[in-house]
Amino acid sequence: MSLVTWQKIDVAAKDPYPVFLGASLEELGEYLHRHYRDIEHILVVSNPVIADIYWERLKQGLMNYRLNLLIVPAGENEKSLDRLSQLTTEALRCGADRKTLVIALGGGVIGDLTGFFASIFMRGVRFIQVPTTLLAQVDSSIGGKVAVNHPAGKNILGAFYPPLAVWTDFSTLETLEWDEVENGLAESIKHAIISDLALFEFFENEQQRIKQRDKTIWREMVTRSSAVKVKIVSEDEHEQGIRGLLNLGHSFGHALETQMNYSGITHGQGVSIGIVAAAHLAHAKGLMSRAEVERARRLLEVFGLPTTIKEQNPQTLLQHMQADKKNQGGRKILILPKGIGQAIVSRECTDQEILSAWQQVIA
Ligand SMILES: NC(=O)c1ccc[n+]([C@@H]2O[C@H](COP(=O)([O-])OP(=O)(O)OC[C@H]3O[C@@H](n4cnc5c(N)ncnc54)[C@H](O)[C@@H]3O)[C@@H](O)[C@H]2O)c1
């Protein structure tokens, strides 16, 4: 099945918004002109790497606006209160006011930071997500979660603040390093495992063309994976229920990232190992056959994602999981796959079962 080149999916939030898949950077200005006649001033936030490659293209369509580009350095550290404060100073210097539109041009870091800035600047100004990483296109730009980090933890200060629109130009992925592709693939495969068996089969069948970065196949991969995220956040905007399934692999993954001090392991690698650990746990609970666990493991490995980790102490990792934000009343809340294409929230995993799952992924 091949999809048309341009597609719009609506997120059915309290304030619904469209996700434009296959739009082009140059055309954003025309869309804004048609739909938001009152916009005069636009602030684009990006980082030096992305702006260097894509600013000229985006700017082409925005020539009729008073336009400012704010550059923040690359990296997770920039999701900080200090950076928010600096953005505020710069925005005021540029004459931003309550009618200013803010555009996030970048990956999840720029999207989260800029979205949170937009949510609090002058008590909230409009913003648009223009995601440029695979992870941002299939995951972080959709769903309205925006945040910065705090020394006490990741994404501690944040909000649900939906964008006016998500403007996804697939061509921006052509310049992405493979490590960053892997981060997005881990989340896309997670989407398939929790709710879309056909998407999982697509990954299995098209693995070669995905690795070769075949443009048609990537288009389809991003579109179908984004559709999973849209469907889930439309049903549960504020994560009261089903949206929690998107955390598959993350409780295990975060424990690894914390233990390794966020170095030597990427988020996608942590999620990948975490998915396999959760699959082993699901198997122990009779939710998944051995063959299904192997199938999930194989698919992650095909794309170079790790499914085991060396020299870790399961007890220490278990301790990190005690601090998981998702736990309730001392109980660990874990997402477990149910076969492939479904998942459940489990409040019934014992420490012994979790330790056994860790042992399965420690080489
Ligand atoms: N809000 C949410 O729902 C949500 C969901 C998942 C993750 N996140 C957040 O997303 C962040 C991770 O996002 P990410 O993986 O996109 O990382 P990122 O934003 O740090 O981008 C990764 C790297 O890719 C570079 N880059 C971006 N686009 C590029 C392009 N088109 N070509 C070449 N290089 C490019 C960036 O400069 C950066 O160095 C984390 O902070 C995480 O907490 C948020």
Would you give an account of this structure?
The protein is of the alpha/beta class. It folds into two domains: 7-175, Rossmann fold; 178-361, Dehydroquinate synthase-like - alpha domain (Dehydroquinate synthase-like, alpha domain, Up-down Bundle). The protein has helices at residues 28-35, 48-60, 81-93, 108-120, 134-140, 178-195, 197-205, 207-211, 215-235, 250-259, 267-284, 290-302, 314-322, 351-361; strands spanning 7-11, 17-21, 41-46, 66-71, 101-106, 127-131, 145-150, 153-160, 165-168, 334-337, 343-346. The chain has a seven-stranded mixed β-sheet with strand order 1-2-9-6-5-3-4, sandwiched between helices. Helix 4 (108-120) links the parallel strand 5 (101-106) and strand 6 (127-131). Helix 3 packs across helix 4 (108-120) and helix 6 packs across helix 9 (215-235). It is globular and about 60 Å long. It starts with 6 loop residues before the first strand and ends with a helix. The model has no long low-confidence stretch (mean pLDDT 94). Nicotinamide-adenine-dinucleotide (NAD) is lined by residues 47, 49-50, 53, 74, 76, 79, 106-110, 112, 132-133, 135-136, 139-140, 143, 145, 154-155, 172, 175-176, 180, 183.
